[in-house]
Design goal:
The complex is a heterodimer of chains A (281) and B (420).
Chain A lengths: L1 E10 L2 E7 L1 H6 L5 E5 L7 E9 L4 E7 L3 H7 L6 E2 L1 E6 L10 E7 L2 H14 L3 E8 L8 H7 L2 E6 L6 E2 L2 H10 L6 E5 L2 H11 L5 E5 L15 E4 L2 E4 H4 L2 E3 L5 H7 L4 H20 L1
Helix pairs in contact in A: 5-6
Chain B lengths: L13 H9 L3 H9 L5 H7 L6 H4 L11 H14 L15 E5 L3 H12 L3 E5 L8 H4 L8 H14 L2 E3 L10 H6 L5 E4 L5 E2 L12 E3 H10 L19 E5 L3 H12 L4 E5 L11 H9 L3 E3 L2 E8 L5 E14 L5 E5 L5 E4 L2 E4 L3 E2 L3 H5 L25 E3 L2 H4 L4 H20 L1
Parallel strand pairs in B: 1-2, 1-4, 2-3, 4-16, 6-14, 7-8, 7-14, 8-9
Antiparallel strand pairs in B: 5-15, 10-11, 11-12, 11-13
The chains are: A alpha/beta (281), B alpha/beta (420).
The complex binds flavin-adenine dinucleotide (2 copies), iron/sulfur cluster (2 copies), FE2/S2 (inorganic) cluster and magnesium ion (MG).
One iron/sulfur cluster (SF4) binds next to helix 3 and helix 5 of chain B.
Chain lengths: 281, 420
Amino acid sequence: MYTIISSVFLAENIKKIEIEAPRIAKKRKAGQFVMIRVGQTGERVPLTIAGSDPEKGTITIIVQGMGKSTRELNSKEAGDTISDIVGPLGTPSHIEKFGTAVSIGGGVGTAIAYPTAVALKEGGNYVITINGARSKDLVILEEEMKAVSDEAYITTDDGSYGFHGFVTQKLQQLIDSGKKIDYVLAIGPIPMMRAIAEVTRPYNIKTMVSLNPIMVDGTGMCGGCRVTIGNEIKFACVDGPEFDAHLVDFKNLTDRNKLYLPEEKQSAETFAHQCNLNKLG
Amino acid sequence: MPPVSRGAPVNIKIDQFIKLIAEGDFTGAARKIKEDNVLPAICGRVCPQEDQCEKECVVGRKNKPVAIGNLERFAADYERESGSVELPKVQPATGKKIAVIGSGPAGLSCANDLIQLGHAVTVFEALHELGGVLMYGIPEFRLPKSIVQGELEGLKKLGVNFVTNTVAGRTVTIDELLKDEDFDAIFIGVGAGLPWFMGIPGENLLGVYSANEFLTRVNLMKSYQFPDNDTPVFNCKGKNVAVFGGGNTAMDAVRTAKRLGAEHAYIVYRRSEAEMPARKEEIHHAKEEGIEFLLLMNPLEFIGNEQQWLTGAKCLKMELGEPDESGRRKPVPIKDSEFILPIDMAIISIGNGSNPLINQTTPDIAVSKRDTIVVDINTMATSKENVYAGGDIVTGGATVILAMGAGRTAAKAIHEKLTA
Ligand SMILES: Cc1cc2nc3c(=O)[nH]c(=O)nc-3n(C[C@H](O)[C@H](O)[C@H](O)COP(=O)(O)OP(=O)(O)OC[C@H]3O[C@@H](n4cnc5c(N)ncnc54)[C@H](O)[C@@H]3O)c2cc1C
Ligand SMILES: Cc1cc2nc3c(=O)[nH]c(=O)nc-3n(C[C@H](O)[C@H](O)[C@H](O)COP(=O)(O)OP(=O)(O)OC[C@H]3O[C@@H](n4cnc5c(N)ncnc54)[C@H](O)[C@@H]3O)c2cc1C
Ligand code: SF4
Ligand code: SF4
Ligand code: FES
Ligand SMILES: [Mg+2]
């Protein structure tokens, strides 16, 4: 059993959760994730480590309620426990002094990009961050991102805050302004990452994306997380999750992520039903 | 040593325990077995006895060999069910600390011997559940999980400290265990956990699984109880499922698919039945349960529909050619014999490589070209001081009893080194 130290909403349906995990807190590097099993009958779900406090022995994750597992996790409060947490898993982000590095986050992807943005800054880069959300109230980590950025931009799809438009448009604007960009990291929904890859491809800008295939063990044992990278099969949980955006077969990833849609829907409905019953009681 | 004991990798006193059974002292028989084998209820069920103990049985030279495995299983079950299990005596504490990495049969048998010799033993396991392949690979119908749990309880009572959710090489490295956490020696028993794929087109289609993933979802994550357990798995009901491979893992996967309701459950194997590495008994069970064997058949490509769901496997028929130098007849393709086997799910079961996590973070442990850890087979010592290894991580996918034997050999060597 692992204890939740704090759990607060950052935006509707997005929570920041601090969990006791001393070994992971000591070891984790930017770009790594944990596998969490909320309860004894739970599934194992991957979540990026957004931050850690090695002294206190805690790590932070930022979770968007999607289906049963993430919503159940987000229903926990400080003092509650979860059954299992294991990590840090995955290959850490490759950090070097690239020059000008742009970190792009879409939605909850901003939380996943944040630790790597911090590492890029510590690595001596000129860091530009672009964080996109559907609308103003879904913007997360604005202050944190500003603190690590030499330039920070926010985009909203509906124009309710910051730049009106998509993160791709903002990136294109930066490129068109003549800025020399040496490195791009993009994390968010698959269509967004795919679109960013197409923006940078003509300019040959090194672009990395963090892939989110369905995982089971997270240690390289099952092969369920395999993704196609330049015609080669890779296991995202050990070889990734970050890969060269220009080599990723995004279509295959999109298709494979639909493997359990009916089951996921059934789980979510059963969970919502139980929750409503609890509320009546 | 009586002839039979030679075939059993952990040197069980087979003649003595069988004599005790014949005398009606079943508990005594179980204790005699346990002097050498920590997990008799498990070995009695899953050992390939026909290739091990029973092969050496003298009765077997003229008649059917004595059913050693079944007798072993009987004695162990009797002892457990009659509640007469007695904890072995533990030697006085030596003050030495040993870390065992991995809780499969290799790690468990090593931990068992070391704790009895008076050492403090901590077992680190990557998954949330203990037992290795015994829990996540071999299905309930062949090895009830309550038996594995029973054996684990015994080890806990002896004082073994189990720590789950800890991946050596990620959560903590071998060097950190030795230096920062003051372990005097380490035994690595992490198994062969990296599933191989065939490298043919279409392997990333929806509905193509590795046997590891399929069995892990079903056994470890209990997806046969979906939605009461949250982990889903491909719904086999009324579907055509093909398992590619001919080993024990393939038999477990295909029988599991059939039990989950598959209409047709096939074994697709490129050689003939004689070459199948699975136990004869398992092949026999599979046939009894209606598994269809498609032998001498080689998959070339997986085919899918618009939505990328698997619809079939393009296969080539083979025939046995002339014997080669080793006398084995190699399968050769039959010209123009390509056809499409309509299937909804494919399970690849052609073996496992080694997980690189420990090797990558501990470069001074020597590994072979196949990434298995290199050891001195007399002591299981690796090239790194005070670090030992055994089981599938050394041999590649092998057997429960071989892994246990390796764990014992290492325990003995560690004890001798630490108390010298
Ligand atoms: C390396 C990695 C890091 C991630 N980091 C974060 C993070 O920091 N914050 C965050 O909110 N989300 C993160 N995710 C996504 C998160 O794991 C999924 O949203 C979650 O598993 C959905 O589970 P569910 O039961 O709530 O929803 P479901 O309704 O079951 O699934 C919703 C969608 O999530 C995906 N999914 C389902 N099961 C799994 C699984 N076992 N593993 C991976 N994906 C799955 C599928 O695409 C599915 O359609 C990350 C994913 C990966 C692979
Ligand atoms: C489906 C299936 C059926 C089989 N049937 C039979 C049979 O009938 N008879 C037979 O004799 N053999 C059978 N085998 C083979 C047998 O199970 C193995 O040879 C045996 O389990 C090997 O034992 P082990 O202890 O070396 O490894 P494993 O049993 O694989 O255990 C290794 C453990 O280490 C853990 N681990 C891995 N990496 C790390 C890490 N970095 N840090 C911490 N922990 C880690 C794993 O999670 C696992 O729990 C079968 C195998 C399978 C897969
Ligand atoms: S059912 Fe209740 S607890 Fe569950 S997600 Fe909805 S509001 Fe939250
Ligand atoms: S442990 Fe296995 S091989 Fe050895 S005697 Fe028992 S059944 Fe036979
Ligand atoms: S999640 Fe199982 S190998 Fe990556
Ligand atoms: Mg889910």
